[in-house]
Amino acid sequence: MSEHVNDIEYQNKPNNNGKAIIGMVLLIIGGLLLVRQFSYFLIPGWIWEWPTWLIVAGLYIGAKHNYRRSIWFILVFIGLAGTLNNAIPGLHIGNLIWPGMIIMIGLWIILRRNHSGANRNKWEKQWEQKWEYKWQQKWDKHYHTPIDPQPQTPADDETSGNIPPVNPNARPITGDDFLDATSIFGGVKKTILSKNFRGGDITNIFGGAEIDLTQADIDGKVVLDITQLFGGTKIIVPPHWQVISNLSAVFAGVDDKRLRKVGAGDNNKILVLEGVSIFAGVEIRTF
């Protein structure tokens, strides 16, 4: 119970690093705009073009997420290519930007699939069970002495390997427990029916996704990772769920259109939205 409460408190903490980064970006932009008003300083025109803003957005996203999300590198790469094309006369690489961007997005999606949804959760669970079981064995060996030790039988030798004990109350994982929605120049509409929903990933590149969770159920905190560029996501949740947004939005926003009711939501059903949204929006609704 205390662990669950700590999770809620952690998610509700303000992200001071993100606010500091936004403040620094605004200071730099304001300073450049102020300097531009004086004729004593010559600021090249290409610094105000869209590639520069892509670089700023990429660095902001990377710094906020400790450079763990590869989307920041894609934005910086595209921004640098466009900036070089505008800053250096005779360097014609503008026609290569779009093909290069499509190739990089494709590689990113392919490499990302092995670390998303059920595969990522399964790997994390196996790692956690392995180390918890290992440290439990060490603790029992050094600090726990049985009152009446029993002789070990051959059957015990066979079953006393490095396999962690099976939890009899664990519910089996089904294909609907994890969401993996990818939309590129199109749209995806999914209805989740799982009563053991564990989160997932939504990726929109010039596309949209509509996820209906009204018939689903969760236990504790569930993370939904959203990555979208020039797209949009609509999420429909049950009215008693709590929704916490930790999204990094660049020229985008999260619009919570749920009906406000008296009283707080269920503390045991928390949906956390994480990820990056660039020139795209996220809409949260309930029926």
TrEMBL record:
Residues 197-255 form the Cell wall-active antibiotics response LiaF-like C-terminal domain. It holds the Pfam family LiaF-like_C. The keyword Transmembrane helix applies. It comes from the Bacteria. Residues 144-171 are annotated as: Disordered. The chain crosses the membrane at residues 20-39, 45-63, 70-87, 93-111. InterPro entries: LiaF-like_C, LiaF_TM. Keywords: Membrane, Transmembrane, Transmembrane helix. Residues 21-116 form the LiaF transmembrane domain. This is Uncharacterized protein. It comes from Mucilaginibacter ginsenosidivorans.
